[in-house]
Structure formats: C-alpha cells, structure tokens
Amino acid sequence: MTAHTPPTPPFRDPQLPFAKRIDDLLSRLTPEEKVSFLHQFAPAVERLGIAAFRTGQEALHGVAWMGPATVFPQAVGLGATWNTELVHRIGEAVSKEVRAMRARDERVGLNVWSPTVNLLRHPLWGRNEEGYSEDPRLTSAIATAYTHGLRGDHPTYWRTAPVLKHWLAHNNETGRDVTSSSVRPRVLHEYDLRAFRGCVEAGAVAGVMPAYNLVNGRPNHVSPYLREQLRSWTDEDLLVCSDAGAPSNLVDSEHYFDTHEEATAAALVAGVDSFTDHGTDGSKIVARVEGALERGLLTQADVDTAVRRQLSVRFRLGEFDPHYDPHAGTGEFDSPAHRLLAGEAAEQAIVLLRNDGVLPLAADTRIAVVGLLADECKLDWYSGTLLHRSTPLEGLYERFGAERVDFAEGVDRVLVKTSAGTFLKVPTAPEATDEVRGAEGALDPALLAGRTDLPPLTTDATGTEFALVDWGEGVLTLRAPDGRYLSVAEDGFLRASADQPGGWVVQETFRLEPHPSGDGNSHGNGHLLLHPGTGRHVCVAADGVRVAGPEDDPEVVEVIVVESGEDAVTRVTAGADVVVVVAGNDPHINGRETEDRGTLRLPPHQERLLAAARAANPRTVLALVSAYPYAFEPGPLSAVLWTAHGGQAAGTALARVLAGDVSPAGRLPQTWYADDADLPDLLDYDVIGARQTYLYFEGAPLFPFGHGLSYASFSYADLAVRVADGTAHVTCTVTNTGDLTADEVAQLYTRAVDPSVPRPRRELLDHRRVTLAPGASAELSFDVPLSAFAFWDVAQGRWRVESGAYDLLVGASSTDVRLRTTVTLEGEPSAPRPVRLRGLQAADFDEQSGVEIVDRTKASGDAVTPVAGGTGELVYRACDFGTGAGTTGVTATVAGSGTVELSLDGGPVLATLTVAPTAGPYDYVTVDAALTAGGVHDLRLGLRGPLRLAHVGFRG
User: Fold this and answer.
1) In degrees rounded to 5, what are phi and psi of residue 190?
2) Which band of pLDDT confidence, cut at 50, 70 and 90, is reported for residue 7?
3) Percent composition of the chain: helix, strand, coil (DSSP 3-state, to 5)
4) Average model confidence (pLDDT) across the chain
C-alpha cells in the first residue's frame, strides 16, 4: 500500500491570496484558540503547526531591550536631520538587525512598535526624545521614511511590521492614564491626525498603538477615531496593539467602565486587536473576553475581525511561507555599513545654533573640554546596549590629540557626614563572580545595578569622596571614585553598584531636603537624604546604610564640598584657546517616560559650570547634548551647538563638526522658547487657541523652528510657481556661495494672506536637504498638492481650500525667508454656517474660553462642558439664521444641570435655556426657548454650571 499524504491546507498554499488563506486558517481555529490570540503573547497551535507569536518589539532608534545592537541617534535627533533618505536607510538597518537578532533569539519580535509620531507640541513633555518634530508634515515625512525602511521593499513580504505610537494627542506623562486632551475638530484634523495619516496612506504601516490618555473625555483604547479615521485611510488590515496595562486602566484607574468584561468588549469593538496586559500571562484577557461573550457584549464575529487583522500581519511577515520569505536569512548585524550609518546620522543631527566665527576649530587649537556630559555616551529607555561607544572627550582626543585637550568633568567632590560625626563609606567590593562578568571576563555593567551581593555602604572616620551632580529640580546622583553610582536594591541597602542611572523606576537618584537644623542651602548643614525611587529617607543602621523603615529615624547628614565643580573647571580652562562646555540631560532623569520636566532652564549646576568657563575664557562654546530644548542666554557664548543623544557615534560626530571635517546642517525640529512664560499649560492641547508651536506662536523664540547654521553660505534665487492639475509646482535655485562642501536644508512654507478663520502664521509644505560643493547650484522642485492648502472647515465638517491669496516662502528656517511670492488659488468661497438647517454640533466652535470637550457617549460623539463645572464661553462665527425673522426658537441637547445663554454679536442675552438635573452625564434631554433672529451673526453661548452641551438646533 502507498502511504496517503494529507493535502496541503489552503492557508499553507503560497499561490493563494492572503485573504483566502486567512479565511481558511480562521475556519480551522477553534473559538478558544481565537480568543487566546487576542493577548500580546499568542500561544502556539500545535495541531496546525502554528508557532507562538507576540506583538511588540521596541525599535525606536535601533533594536531595544534585547542586548547589544547598533544604537542610532534618538528620534528627535533623526528629526533634526530633516533627511528622509537617511532615515529610510536607518529603518532598513534596524529592520535587518531585528531579523538577524530574531534568528538567534526567538524573543525578538518582528512586529515593531515604532516610530513615535506624537507631535512635539510642548517641550516639557518627558518623552520629547521619542518624537520627530512639532510639525505634522515633517513628522509624517520622517516617520514614513523610517517605516518604509522597517517594512522593506519586497512587494509581498515585510521585513518587519511597524506600529505607530501613540494614538492620539498624547503629550503629557503627568497623569497620563487619567488626563483628557481636549482637542477641537480643527486641531484634531489639521494637527494630531495629520502626522498619522500621511504614514498610513504611504502604505508602510502595519498598525497603531493607542495612547494611555483620554481624548475629549474618552480613553484612546475605545476611540471611535480608530474606525472613523484610521481605518478609512487604507484598504489594508491594520493591527491595533494596546499599550501595556492600558486595557486594565479602563476600569482600575480611569473608572470608565464598571467591569473588565465591559471594558475589554468596548476596546475590541472600537478596534483594539491585541491586548498588552499582565505581561506574558494571557489568562486574564482570555477570561475577560470569554466573560464578555457570555454576557452578549461581544460576538464571535468581533473576535474573528481582530484575529484576522493579526493574522494579516503574520502572513505579510512571511511566517507561513518560510521558503518564500526573502528576509528569512537576513543576518546583517553590527556591520561596517551600520557603523558608518550611525556616524553619518550622528553628524547630520548636529545643529549649529550660534557661531561668532570661533568654529570650526583649527587643528592646533588647545581645547579645554568640561561638563557633566563631556565624557558620557548616554542611553535612554528605548536604546539597545552599546556595542561601540564614543564620548565627546574621546572624540576630541582622537581628532585633536590627547596632548591638546584638557578635561574637567565639573562634578562637586563631596563627603557626606552623619550626625555621629562619621562619613558615608563605600567598602571594598569582593572579587566579581563569574555570573557578572562578560564573555571576555570584563564586568557587565548591566548586571551591576540591583546587586545584593556587594557590601552596603557603611560609615567611618574618613569616608568616601563622592562625585555629586545636581541634575536640576532637586534631583542628584552620587558616584563612587570607581565610577559606580549609589543605588538602592530591593533589600533597601545603599550600594555603589550601578554603571548608570536607569530602570523603569530609577534607583540611583536622591534629593537633599533641608532639616530644621540646616540653613536651607543644598550643600549646607542639616539635610535629610531622600531616595525618590522608594519614597524613603536614608538612615544609618548597624548592618549598613539603607532607606529607613517605619521604625527607623532618618539620618541627618551634612554635605561637605571638598572641591566644587566650578573650581575644577577654572583650573583647566584659563590656559586654553577655546573651552567646550558639554551640557545637557541624563535621559533617565528629569524628563523621560512617566516624568515630565518642570522647566526649560538648564540645571543650576550646569549654569554654574558654564558661568565659570565663560569667566575663565570668553572663547566658550556650549555643546548641548539633550533630549529636548533648553532656555538660556546665548549672547555671551562664542558658539552654541545642539544634538540629541547621538547613539554610539555621538562623540566622534561632535568632534568632526567642531573641527570642520563636517559642516553642520541639522535643523531644529521644534521651537526653542526663551522662557517658561512662553509655554502654555502642559495639558492645553489647543494649538490654535493657545498659539502653540511655530505655527501659531506670536512671541520671539530663543531659536525658531527650522533654524540651523552652517560653515558655508548659500544664496537662493529664481523662485517660480505654476499651478496645474491640482498641484502647485514650485521651483527655486540654491547655490553654495561658501568655500566648503556643505548641506543646506531648503524649506518651503505657506501663509494664507487673508483667511476667514485663524490660520498658521506660516506652515511647512515641503523641504529638501541637498549637498553642494563650493560654487555649485541645484534647482529644487516641490510639487505641492492643492489639498495641502486646505483647512478643516468646522462649518462644513470637511476639508476646504479657501479661495484667495497664499504667500509662498522659501528659506533656511521658518523665519529666515530668502524668497517669497504670492499665488492666488481658486478654491471654495467662504459661506455662512447654515445653522437653521443643520443646527450646531457644540464642539464645532470657532473660539472658546473656559470649556473642554468631553464624550457625548462612551462609544462616540463629543459634547462641551465648562471646566470644573464653572462658566464657559463659545463663539460660532457667521451663523445664518435665515431671512427676515427666520428663526423663532432654539433647542439644546444637554445633560447635567445649569443654563445655556445665547447672544448675537456680543449683544445682550436673547435666550436662556435651563437644564434641570439629569440622571447622569450621558442622560441627555432637549430643552428649548424662544429666539427671534434672522440674517448672519456671530453666535455666543454662555455655559453656566456642570452641564454637557452636545447640540444646538434652531427652528422657524
């Protein structure tokens, strides 16, 4: 007899379309197996030969959390390159390393949660380092380039499947899971959605991740915009992956639903397809989905829809066609090409903010390099482990020679004295055991933090001299002479055990709190030493120094300065030709995921070092290495540069720019404000009303959006515009008039000359980064669809290009305009709102004060309410009430209690609608009143009390 070979199931047939294969596989999965797929860690189905799968692999600027990998500049640094071609190549490199690492470690996932396209609306946002720009078009262009690189260029199979973060209007870590972003329709469409939309429509995105916050009173994980907007932009199946723990937040912190079954069902119906919750344990999500099915809150079709979207990604990744997947054998990892690319990216990300001619430095310059970041190569929360490392100091040694470079870190050298008159002491550590040594016997820094086998701090008569750094906002670190930071392990003892501050909860930071016996100065007598990671003070016990328990008395300590950072700086700077002060932030301290900044100012410690350097040598260059903008006085400085933390090649790149080997050409991807007073409240998401970002800001910035200087000079000429076939064709010529080969970033902006509604002061349409030799010219062309001139017309509920004149501005930044012309576009003329015919959606206002947008129902719709139940005002411009006395009455759909007052053109109140208390915030009633009106008027509504207004109607 001949053995019978079972037929190949259709889902294994690579000749069939993916849609048919997914249908077949879905039909073979049991209901229980389908439900199990909804958790982040989908289990294997052995009877069908289907492997386990997990969503999520962090890859923001290199492969993160999976050990050594090529580390590229932070995302905000990639945004500063304004170079989509470069970022595309970086995406390719990262995706190749994902594949190569996956071949060695099955924990590495191919569904990458990157990039972050949240706009850098507010520079105090802790995660500023993760975004590309404050401008939606620049953000979309950079993100699209990165996702195309991550996806790969094969027409069928994707190298990795990128998921965009974080949907939607997410710019605060303070209360991020309970705060609501009030986003009116114009801001929603013109600003927050625009960055996502361009990427999705470009076809290289596998899905999105909803953010922790709420938008207009509704958690993003049950957002109707997932259906109404996101999925309308493409015919592809998009996978929506929840953020970690967010499904449980719907009940536990947000209290939006009463039960987890309701919450899970609502999220699934809204469009969440993969639930990231409870780590690797999928049992709780499975139980919630099964409970929702039993209660009739979900149908099997709802589950099938979500599983289909996940399977679509898995098929595109080649999981079911290993012999056809062109990426299966990808092994490129830490290649010479990737190392060169990391260096190129670090160079292109550097922005020259100011230069009085001191830069570039001559080869024989004697340099004093000082500062807390001078000999650091900092990583952030989403970095991989460094394979290679380059600090500014190392880069300067390499480029200029160690004999021409003097160095002072500028830390305060201190002793910490106890109330008993002894000093904190780091005991001698035992010989490191094999498990904390790397492959070649070197200590593995990643294994040092949190160790409990090291002896804890003690006290003695001499003590240890620590390096104290105040990172600002009262947060400090203490470092032992061997370079290890004081850290607190799970047992509560202090040890010198960490290579760097880090971790989800940073255990290496402290605060000095004045004690009643002290003088209140940070280094004065009588302080308590608080450990923020545990929220407990430090005490001295018989078995060592540890954080105090309930029965312990905190230790009163005195910090004795042996040498100040300023003295160290002065010692090495006076005899130098030029001083380079390297300042900035530690990405794990004061501004990171879970923690917003409190100020734009440089930390006082670094201001002191900068002042000391300037006093010793007026030829002082400030090199800022930071994840976000700072405010400072640039006038006394000879030059100022900024770069984000630049990854493994940061130091070499900075040295090459300082030496003039590379002409800097990075451009600021966000406005640098001069003072905290220029900033709106962190939770004010109305960029139009609050005049935020370069689009609307009316003050004088410290440095404007798009700013960046060069060692060369460039001229612009021959601006021409031709409008045809729905496109504005713009051309100009840029010439390098300097004597160095350099890059220029030409930027094209527009401004509506006489708009009917507030429009941006100027708005980026396109840009081009070009390399030009001395004397060389390039003709640049920009093809701008006329739809780019549109705004979201709340009166019509759609995009509209308004007829009229538009300025076109070409130059080197948003304020450095070299050429301009005006073009007249034939669009749609403005028309009054037909309120008598359609009424008004309350959220479609033109202006507001004292109100916020909230959810009309838990599933969809918006309403407007006074902030904290107080009073608020709404203005709706040019409302058409009909001819004559066309309107005789007004109705309002409201919930809560209070009054709605109506007036026209700023006149007296003409009608008052009173709302008796309703049963709850979602129990709407209709109230009415007489109103006689005709013609076109501005309508003003005054909201009084804790009511929710959803709609206003008019009758006649």
Assistant:
1) -80, -20
2) confident
3) 25, 30, 45
4) 95
Domain boundary assignment for the chain: 30-316, 346-410+566-667, 413-563, 693-825, 835-955
Which CATH fold topology does 30-316 show? TIM Barrel (3.20.20)
- Assign 573 a pLDDT band (cuts: 50, 70, 90): very high
pLDDT bin (cut points 50, 70, 90) of residue 3 is low
User: Is the pLDDT at 443 greater than 60, yes or no?
Assistant: no
Q: What pLDDT was estimated at residue 431? A: 57
Q: Do the beta carbons of residue 601 and residue 102 sit within 8 Å?
A: no
Q: Beta partners for 871? A: 944
pTM for the complete prediction? 0.96
Cβ contact 227:234 at 8 Å: no
The pairing of beta strand 180-181 with beta strand 214-215: parallel
User: What separation, in Å, do the N-terminal and C-terminal C-alpha atoms of the chain show?
Assistant: 89
Residue 517 has pLDDT above 70, yes or no: no
CATH class of 693-825: mainly beta
Question: What is the pLDDT at residue 2?
Answer: 56
Amino acid, single-letter form, for residue 810: V
Fold classification of 346-410+566-667 is Rossmann fold (3.40.50)
- Domain 413-563 in CATH 2.40.300.10? The answer is no
| Contact call for residues 208 and 230 (beta carbons, < 8 A) | yes
Closest CA to 740 of 661, 642, 813: 661
Residue 569 identity (one-letter amino acid) = V
CA atoms of 667 and 714, how far apart (whole Å): 15
Rounded-to-integer distance, Cα 358 and Cα 619, Å: 7
84-104 and 136-151 are packed helices; what angle lies between their axes, rounded to 10 degrees?
Answer: 40
Alpha helices in 105-231 (DSSP H): 136-151, 185-187, 193-201, 225-228
d(C-alpha 229, C-alpha 193), whole Å: 8
CA distance 38 to 30: 13
Q: Which of 173, 166, 128 is nearest to 585 (CA)?
A: 128
pLDDT band at 248 (very low <50, low <70, confident <90, very high): very high
DSSP 29: S
Classify residue 136 as exposed, middle or buried by CB count within 10 Å of its CB (0-12, 13-18, 19+): buried
If pLDDT is split at 50, 70 and 90, which confidence band does 230 have?
A: very high
State the number of CA atoms in the 13 A half-sphere of 311 facing the CB.
26
CATH architecture of 835-955: Sandwich (2.60)
Tell whether omega for the bond before 166 is within 30 degrees of 0, i.e. cis.
Answer: yes
The answer to whether residue 435 scores a pLDDT higher than 50 is: no
CA–CA gap between residue 86 and residue 94 (Å, rounded): 12
**Amino acid at site 377:** C
pLDDT over threshold 60, residue 444: no
- pLDDT, tens only, 723-776: 999 999 999 999 999 999 999 999 999 999 999 999 999 999 999 999 999 999
Q: In which region does residue 943 sit, left (phi positive, over 0), alpha (psi from -120 to 50) or beta (all else)?
A: beta
Asked if 110 contacts 317 with a C-beta cutoff of 8 angstroms, the reply is: yes
Helices (H), 766-920: 835-838
Q: Tokens in use for 346?
A: 């670090």
